[in-house]
Amino acid sequence: MTFRILTVCSGNICRSPMAEQLLRARLGGVDDIEVSSAGTIAMVGDGMPAEARELSARLGAADADAHRARQLDERMVREADLVLGLAREHRRAVVELVPAATRKTFTLREFAHLAAEVTEADLAASVDPFADAPPGGLGVAVTATASLRGVVAPFESPDDADVVDPYRRSAAVYEQSAQQIGPAVDVTVALLARLAARR
Known about the structure:
11% strand, Tyr_phospatase_low_mol_wt, alpha/beta, 4 strands, four-stranded parallel beta sheet, 43% helix, Rossmann fold
């Protein structure tokens, strides 16, 4: 079964495509994962600004030039197994669109913050013995991570859950945005790869 990750920001030209592309690149060795992105107020059809394209490519993405922005809709959310907003406003917009998506929707940095604390016991407790997917299916990562909400100590500041929006800002802000996305992607990939290795 294909595991689908959806990243979401506002215009779908900077933060969410960068997260999408880095996830795809770093999950390259994991089969049956699809990563896509969308925007809550997407600049439909637009590509990434040069600064975002160059940063994404520098960090390992191979498909930044091909990106075209698209508008978030209910179908995308319903079909996703994990939705990663790039800021709290995007997480909120996703849940307002599809309230049932609450347990699978996080900000990227929130997911990484929780995923870093997932133990083997958390994973074992999250396996549904009646599910169609085999034990160790990637959905277990989402269930285990969601179970740590309210258990793991929160961020020192709520703003730490967000990735800064670099659009029309300085090169330094683009760098800051990338520095927030990259480590969060790495933690997310580590958890998914840990489960994928057991399949």
